[in-house]
Specification:
The complex is a heterotrimer of chains A (222), B (247) and C (60). Chain A is mostly helical. Chain A contains 9 helices and no strands. Chain B has one domain. Chain B is built from 8 helices and no strands. In chain B, helix 3 packs parallel to helix 7 and helix 4 runs parallel beside helix 6. The radius of gyration of chain B is 20 Å and the shape is globular. Chain C has 60 residues and is mainly α. Chain C has a domain of 31 residues. The mean pLDDT of chain C is 84. The chains are: A mainly alpha (222), B mainly alpha (247), C mainly alpha (60).
């Protein structure tokens, strides 16, 4: 079972490294969206430091959502997904491998680049540190919840818009607690409560989301 | 005992029995709902005493609060009947779930708009990011997502199952969303005090509230059964009993 | 009597809320009645067509 998990993980990562755009595009999107805000609102330090945490998090949320398409789409089209459903291994484990791979491809680069954007938005060093921690805890949640939505719409031709309707409301708790944690650490307040919430929510999603995703995939592929 | 119960459920859940029985139930629900809603409105509008803080504007809660309760209740019904449909393969449960969605969305919309109308004299603005209004707005998004997914999938059976999964995921998330919105609201509240929260409710105000709440429940029961009956007729149109009814 | 309907200075707010509730709930309640009529009409036409084509087949 562990072998199946790691083999699938390796395969997905190898495929992603072959199409580099899959890794780079969400990252570019993330950077561009954040860049738009100083241009649209004001380049003043005070304003940007105030809205920075929220903006970076909203951008991360959208980047993660838009990259969901690569999670199941190609496997759906070439029939790999159908084989996974028929395989002897428990489906939630296989799906978890795919989600982990997807997070490593799309979520992890965002975390690496976030200090840069934090600096651009005039966040303090502590706030940037918190930003990275919240992204580390939060982006896996986005991938896990997003996988459920993606599994529901994978068989539809134009699922993109629908996916955002299904998934964005469920992202709200992550957005609230993460951006608030970054803002609070800017103000020098304690952030352990927010981080505990994110950690608990992550574990919760880690156990239940793969099951819901496999149920949704079975419906979609019928 | 268990067997007898299951047998009864399956028998009731057969489209033909459901159609006959619900036809008998609907008039009762509808008339009781009408009586309760009229009595509750009269009581709420004219008989209940004026609130010393909010004046007569508080009379909107007799619509707003029951509508907000219904919006949550109906989403729960959708998730539970979705689960029943997935586990026991009772088709009728799917019909109930999908018939409920537009009614729930209507109640959510009503709760939002009446909340905002109430907010205008209380806060001086049509919209305030109050915890309850914000949660209600997110709930409306969940309803809209559910209905969008249902209409996007062509095969009705697959649509019903996908929607059931979505409703279950949504219902698990609602308390988490609610909690985080409340928490966020207490942080950002500043000077605005939530006046939508119970103004230490007096018994003479509680009676119309309960009348309206019960009336809304029965109204939902009647409407959801009517909608479900229509769906059953269409899906069972090639069966003998439908032909006999329509003649 | 008029005072009772004016609701202090909040008449417009209160009555628009109740009026909106009446419109929304009325629409939601009457829509299925209209749908039912349409379904009955459509199905009875369909059955008539079917029985006619059956008769023709028997005659042939």
């Amino acid at each position: 079972m562990y072998n199946a998990f790691f083999n699938l993980l390796k395969r997905d990562l190898r495929l992603a490294f072959r199409h580099k755009s899959e890794i780079l595009n969400p990252l570019f999107f993330f950077v561009i969206v954040v860049t738009l805000f100083p241009l649209g609102i004001s380049p003043e330090k005070q304003v940007l430091a105030e809205i920075g945490p929220g903006i970076i998090w909203v951008a991360a949320l959208l980047a993660s959502m838009l990259s969901l398409d690569s999670l199941f789409r190609s496997d759906f089209e070439d029939g790999t997904l159908e084989l996974m459903l028929l395989s002897e291994y428990p489906l939630p484990i296989l799906i978890l491998a795919k989600i982990v791979a997807h997070w490593l491809i799309t979520g992890f680069p965002i975390i690496i680049f976030s200090p840069l954007l934090g600096t651009v938005m005039f966040l303090s060093n502590e706030a940037i540190e918190t930003l990275m921690i919240t992204l580390l805890l939060g982006t896996p949640i986005l991938s896990l919840i997003g996988a459920i939505g993606m599994a529901l719409v994978v068989a539809l031709k134009r699922g993109g818009m629908l996916l955002s309707l299904l998934v964005l409301p469920l992202y709200i708790p992550v957005l609230i607690f993460s951006s608030n944690a970054v803002g609070s650490s800017m103000a020098g307040l304690s952030i352990s409560g927010q981080l505990y919430f994110l950690a608990a929510f992550l574990i919760f999603c880690l156990t239940l989301a793969p099951i819901a995703t496999s149920a949704a995939l079975r419906v979609s592929l019928e | 005992m268990m067997k007898a119960i299951m047998k009864f459920i399956y028998q009731f859940a057969s489209p033909k029995h459901f159609y006959r029985l619900s036809g008998k139930i609907i008039p009762w629900f509808a008339w009781l709902a009408a009586i309760l809603l009229i009595a509750g409105s009269i009581d709420g509008l004219f008989i209940a005493p004026v609130d010393y803080q909010q004046g007569d504007s508080y009379r909107i809660i007799f619509i707003h609060v029951p509508a907000a309760w219904m919006s949550m209740f109906i989403y729960m019904v959708m998730a539970i009947s979705g689960a029943i449909a997935l586990i026991w393969k009772i088709k009728l449960a799917d019909v109930i779930a999908s018939s409920s969605a537009p009614i729930g969305a209507a109640f959510t919309f009503l709760a939002l708009v009446t909340g905002s109308i109430w907010g205008k004299p209380m806060w001086g603005a049509w919209w305030v990011w109050d915890a309850r209004l914000t949660s209600e707005l997110i709930l409306l998004f969940l309803y809209l997502g559910y209905m969008a997914l249902e209409s996007a999938i062509e095969d009705p059976r697959a649509a019903a199952r996908a929607c059931a999964i979505l409703a279950i995921v949504g219902v698990i998330n609602i308390p988490i969303i609610h909690y985080s919105v409340e928490w966020w609201n207490t942080l950002h509240q500043g000077a605005t005090v939530t006046k939508l929260d119970k103004p230490s409710i007096h018994i003479s105000m509680l009676i119309p509230l309960l009348l309206m709440a019960l009336g809304f429940k029965l109204y939902y029961g009647a409407v959801v059964l009517m909608r479900a009956r229509n769906k059953v007729l269409v899906t069972e149109q090639n069966n003998r009993w439908v032909k006999e009814i329509i003649g | 009597m008029m005072e009772m309907f004016q609701m202090g200075k909040y008449g417009a707010y209160v009555w628009s809320s109740y009026g909106l509730a009446l419109i929304v709930m009325g629409y939601v309640a009457f829509k299925p009645l209209l749908d039912k009529k349409a379904i009955f009409k459509e199905l009875s036409m369909k059955y008539r067509r079917e029985s006619q084509s059956n008769n023709k087949q028997e005659q042939a």
